[in-house]
Amino acid sequence: MHSGPASRGAALVLERLYRHLPAMEQHLHIAERTGWPDEIPTLSAGYPREVWDAHPHLRKPTRNWMAAHAGFRRLADVLRDDAEQFLDAKIAADFYGARLARLARMLTVNLHGHHTFEDRSFFPEINAVDPRFGSGLEVLEADHMELDQTLDRFERHARRSLQLAELDPGQLKDEVGALHKVTEGLQGFLARHLADEEDLIVPIILHHRMRG
Ligand SMILES: [Fe+2]
Ligand SMILES: [Fe+2]
Questions:
Q1: This model's pTM is above 0.85
Q2: Could you tell me which of 185, 190, 183 has the C-alpha nearest to residue 87?
Q3: Which of the ligands is closest to the CA of residue 68?
Q4: Which residue, among 37, 19, 208, has the nearest Cα to 127 in the 3D structure?
Q5: Ligand nearest to the CA of 139
Q6: How much is the average pLDDT of 2-31?
Q7: Are 129 and 208 in contact (CB under 8 A)?
Q8: What is the number of the ligand closest to the CA of 189?
């Protein structure tokens, strides 16, 4: 599983960044945001979500990218439901552990891969086509740094849960309780980040006939 110095470094960068931001910027943080505020330019008024699906410029690569988002949301739902099933004694520790090992790895590996692709390749591509939306892309990049920290917490609790499932199942409930809480936090993060990301980027893609 992913861990470690890189994301701790990112956490420090983020902490420094937000300590020095003017008060105006604090509300752009993922924990504060409730959608895109007026000072962040988007094309969403001209391309509201309702028109996306039938739009001729919504091609396969963009549909696949949004399907990946839907997959992350679903996977986080399943991980939270599994934790609840175990805490309610509806499934056994070994069954829960086997699913957790597989699904937690799937979520973390794919999420890290997804946002690394966005930071290194997809966002620069968008910015090169239309540089008016750089401020929104920067906010999404800051989200990704925060996501690294959330995923680190999730992985720590998942790893401890897997160890306890094997070595000391009597202690497992407390740890799964903590994992459940972190998973709910991750769900909230994903709901906000993925919605804002799509609201910023899909209209740009439709407008410029990008990606297919
Ligand atoms: Fe993202
Ligand atoms: Fe994404």
A1: yes
A2: 183
A3: 2
A4: 208
A5: 1
A6: 61
A7: yes
A8: 1
Q: Hey, what are 154's tokens?
A: 């999730």
Ligand nearest to the CA of 30: 1
Q: Hey, what domains does the chain have and what are their CATH numbers?
A: 5-21+46-208 (1.20.120)
Cα(126) to ligand 1 centroid in Å equals 13
Q: What's at 144, amino acid-wise?
A: H
What is the Å distance from ligand 1's center to 169 Cα? 36
What is the per-residue pLDDT for 2?
42
If you measure from the C-alpha of residue 116 to the centroid of ligand 1, how many angstroms do you get, rounded to a whole number?
9
Task: Label residue 25 by pLDDT band (50, 70, 90).
Answer: confident
Structure tokens at 211: 């990606």
pLDDT at 154 over 90: yes
Encoded amino acid at 129, one letter: V
What integer is the mean pLDDT of 29-53?
A: 96
At residue 17 the predicted structure's pLDDT band, cuts being 50, 70 and 90, is: low
Contacts of 21 (CB under 8 A, 6+ apart): none
Give residue 165 CA to ligand 2 midpoint distance, Å: 32
Count the helices and strands in the chain (H runs, E runs). 8, 0
What is the biggest distance separating any 2 CA atoms in the chain, rounded to whole angstroms? 57
CA of 64 to the centre of ligand 2 (A): 11
Can you give the C-alpha Rg of the chain in angstroms? 19
What spacing in Å lies between the alpha carbon of 156 and ligand 2's midpoint?
A: 23
Query: Which ligand lies nearest to the CA atom of residue 137 in the structure?
Result: 1
Distance from the alpha carbon of residue 193 to the mean position of ligand 1, in angstroms: 7
